[in-house]
Design brief:
GO terms for molecular function: ethanolamine-phosphate cytidylyltransferase activity. The protein is of the alpha/beta class and 335 residues long. The protein is 38% helix and 11% strand.
């Protein structure tokens, strides 16, 4: 077990209210390619108690046991089962579909065509499958979603304001390691992450990047504990106006290539001129490109896994419908 050292001292379990026993919450999943939907699930689960334990398992089914039973049947019967509300508009299946379909339909300002929706929704599914637990739906950003993820705290006197910028696409452990290093540069850091517009990212990344649109990337970055604020649609060049507006003390960039601005200028020339620019080595070589390459390489294996899982879940749903119908008939016979 890996214990999260943040929060209570040394990662120790906090006491419950008024000295009562702490409520321990268990939450599990595959958490493959962690996105803001997973973050929202964990946020909801944490709010149900005092101490959250997260189980990460392999690619075996999470909804069914080997003999086809509901994985959570025992805890449901014991009255100890709760469900988190699903975050609409995001799923690992959808994100993988975007990588493989190589379209820009998911970018902000692009309307999702019926052809894309039909193809993406059937991606990796068994023929005729209509599983309510998977599928593609368009993400709709709301102010409430942002409030749920945002800290709402402004920089305080004595805090060091650190600015970082980028796409932060498919927010992954490489990004987290970088932000952790940035966060550790000051005793009292206030980290601001500037996220570029989809069209800007596509200009310097090409292909169908970013895989996640600006609204989705915003929630993913806000969910990171090392980030205090996010600039939604930040300018590519770190300007004097931006630095002065946020009273930035330090500007950081990773070891990835710095692509020149459209006019050929260095996007970090102003913070360099002020002597507040530094490059950070996160010690992690994982990039969004590597994740996409891995998915493309293992496409057939991924599709086969999804189809097998889909078929099992559909069979389980049909069996459950039959059981409910049988109970209803028996109940009617009693009268």
């Amino acid at each position: 077990m890996i214990r999260n050292g943040h929060g209570a001292a040394g990662g120790a379990e906090p006491p419950g209210p008024e000295g009562k026993r702490a409520v321990r919450v268990w939450c599990d999943g595959c958490y493959d390619m962690v996105h803001y939907g997973h973050s929202n699930q964990l946020r909801q689960a944490r709010a149900m108690g005092d101490y959250l334990i997260v189980g990460v398992h392999t690619d075996d089914d999470i909804t069914l046991t080997v003999d086809g039973r509901d994985t959570y049947e025992e805890v449901k019967q014991a009255g100890r089962y709760r469900e988190c509300r699903r975050t609409q508009g995001v799923s690992t299946t959808d994100l993988v579909g975007r990588m493989l379909l190589v379209t820009k339909a998911h970018h902000s300002g692009h309307e999702i065509s019926s052809e894309y929706r039909e193809y993406a929704d059937s991606f990796g599914k068994c023929p005729g499958g209509r599983n309510p637990w998977t599928g593609v739906s368009q993400f709709l950003q709301t102010s409430q979603k942002i409030i749920q993820f945002a800290s709402g705290k402004e920089p305080q006197p004595g805090e060091t304001v650190i600015y970082v910028a980028g796409a932060f696409d498919l927010f992954h452990i490489g990004h987290v390691d970088f932000l952790e290093k940035v966060h550790g540069l000051a005793k009292r850091p206030y980290v601001i992450a500037g996220l570029h517009f989809d069209q800007e990212v596509n200009h310097y990344k090409g292909k169908n990047y970013p895989i996640m649109n600006l609204h989705e990337r915003t929630l993913s970055v806000l969910a990171c504990r090392y980030v205090s604020e996010v600039v939604i649609g930040a300018p590519y060049a770190v300007t004097a106006e931006l630095l002065d507006h946020f009273k930035v003390d330090l500007v950081c960039h990773g070891k990835t290539e710095i692509v020149p601005d459209k006019d050929g200028s260095d996007p970090y020339q102003e913070p360099k001129r002020r002597g507040i620019f530094c490059q950070i080595d996160s010690g992690n070589d994982l990039t969004t490109d590597l994740i996409v390459q891995r998915i493309i390489k293992n496409r057939l294996e991924y599709e086969a896994r999804n189809q097998k899982k889909e078929a099992k879940e559909l069979a389980f749903l049909e069996a459950r419908r039959r059981q409910e119908a049988q109970r209803e008939r028996e109940s009617n016979c009693d009268f």
